[in-house]
Amino acid sequence: MSDAASNDNESLAGAAQVAGLKVVETGWFGRDSLPQELNFKPVSEAIFNGGLVGENGTPGSNSDIITVDGDRAFVLRISEHKPEAVKPLADVKAQVSDIVKHTKAEQQAKLDADKLLTALKEGKGDEAMKAAGLSFGAPQTLSRTGQEALSQSVFALPLPQAGKPSYGVGSDLQGNVVLLALDEVKAGTMPEEQKKAMIQGITQNNAQIAFEALMSNLRKAAKIKLGDIIDQQQ
């Protein structure tokens, strides 16, 4: 997958085909509004400090494979970029007002969700959900390598015990607060090609990290003697 990403720098289609995955495109975001599914330090560093933006904001090169959590990997491409700028207050007044309203609504939704979560964990969820006029939707199957916004939150939940669901709170792509009920966990399988691609990516990353550490140690330990050179020049 690493070779496919570097050989085809016009898109991620080649890397996606090799990995057997679909390319997912996000909306606009900044340093302080990184989507939850991309909210990992190595990913953030690559996006904002990795040289993935071309000249004058044009699309740049694809990233190398970035591994996080041991079993999760990303290949990134910045399709559009806008430089940071300050807009006049008159142009953003309505937007600021909407953001404040949305933030307050989101905070209230999280408070309400936390109360319901407490009730669910105490075995009083049916009454609390009914009183709030809410109910769980149809069951869904999520994979760790899936692109669903809730995958990260779901896989952070404790395993269900004795046939009882494990409950938690997450957010979807639209920023809505979602109550989660994890009913069952099944061990996953990975095709051999994906295993090889992931092992290759991890090996390359580890080699790069080891090389950078070696060079850093060599620089720290290096000693330069100028006396003989100066004497010869004199």
UniProtKB/TrEMBL annotation:
<keyword id="KW-0472">Membrane</keyword>
<dbReference type="InterPro" id="IPR052029">
    <property type="entry name" value="PpiD_chaperone"/>
</dbReference>
<keyword id="KW-0413">Isomerase</keyword>
<keyword id="KW-1003">Cell membrane</keyword>
<protein>
    <submittedName>
        <fullName>Peptidyl-prolyl cis-trans isomerase D</fullName>
        <ecNumber>5.2.1.8</ecNumber>
    </submittedName>
</protein>
<dbReference type="GO" id="GO:0003755">
    <property type="term" value="F:peptidyl-prolyl cis-trans isomerase activity"/>
</dbReference>
<keyword id="KW-0143">Chaperone</keyword>
<dbReference type="GO" id="GO:0005886">
    <property type="term" value="C:plasma membrane"/>
</dbReference>
